[in-house]
Design goal:
By secondary structure, this protein is mostly helical. Helices cover about 75% and strands about 0% of the residues.
Length: about 190
């Protein structure tokens, strides 16, 4: 690895910390350069443009989130849908994962408006989470993990949206109902 690669990697780590704590609104070139401990010109020496810089930073944040999810919920043993739903919902409320969720909503909002690199990065993050869920779901009589994982993602995303807009009691109630429905459907 070259000195340039080392400095680029260190800059990404510091910018990831900055974006995670300040949000995407603070992800303009000068604040990112300050967070990285360099000038905006020098920062562009390490990256082709701001989109590449932001994509690398967001990818790093996503990698951190998946690592924390891995720590909270190991791949084995595989779990039935309702058990994994409860575990992921509890993990999302933890101090370890809570800071990632508002940033996810900002990223998804930008993607819905067609902004780049928001659209591409959020797609990669969702693909990664889909794989993460698929690996952890136990095959059931009426559904394979690859079939159940999209339903799982839609459930978690909807639950988090309810929570984010101040309807956490409604989200918790929905988790209870989803667990009950899927347990009876899967006959667990």
């Amino acid at each position: 690895m070259t000195i340039r690669d080392d400095r680029r990697k260190a800059a990404i780590e510091r910018m990831a910390d900055h974006v995670l704590s300040q949000g995407l609104g603070a992800a303009t070139l000068r604040p990112l350069a300050a967070a990285a401990g360099t000038s905006d010109r020098m920062l562009l020496y390490y990256f082709a443009d701001k989109d590449e810089l932001l994509a690398a930073t967001l990818d790093r944040i996503a990698t951190r989130m998946i690592a924390r999810l891995d720590d909270a919920i190991p791949a084995e043993p595989r779990k039935p849908f309702p058990a994994l739903l409860e575990q992921v919902w509890a993990a999302m409320a933890s101090e370890s994962l809570r800071p990632f969720m508002p940033l996810w909503l900002e990223l998804a909002s930008g993607a819905s408006r067609g902004l780049q690199p928001h659209h591409d990065v959020s797609g990669r993050i969702m693909d990664g989470f889909l794989t993460w869920v698929t690996v952890r779901l136990r095959p059931e009589d009426d559904g394979e993990p690859a079939q159940l994982a999209p339903l799982f993602l839609a459930s978690i995303e909807g639950l988090y949206l309810l929570d984010a807009i101040g309807r956490s009691a409604l989200a918790d109630s929905a988790v209870t109902e989803l667990v009950s429905l899927t347990q009876s459907r899967l006959d667990i």
